[in-house]
Amino acid sequence: MTVNEEQTTIGVALEDLMREVEGLQTGGYRLVQIGCTDIGGAYEVNYSFDKGYQFRNLRLTVGPETEVPSISGIYWGAFVYENEMHDLFGIPVAGINIDFKGTFIKTAEKYPFSVTRRGGDRCRNA
Length: 126
Fold this sequence. Notes:
The chain has helices spanning 17-26, 78-89, and strands at residues 6-11, 30-38, 43-51, 54-62, 68-69, 93-94.
């Protein structure tokens, strides 16, 4: 069986994030993942949703100190991804339904992927 998977990526402003996520949940989409990456002094946060083999991605760009609202009130399991964003990147997430307060992922260095930490990224310089 071959499935033609459609993927759409939409840039979303911070103030529109919750409205967009609520619309996807109402439309029957499931949360697939929340991913984060350093884009040179800021973060790109991608929220991926699926319904019938059609992916919808919301792309949010935020600065290192920007607080992001939790979507765990809409998609309960989002707390896993949101705690990971906080613990690895240092992104403040407000209103997580289960907030581990920085203890979800234990690392030798606090916020190892933070764009504001000193000393560079050892993984990139290896």
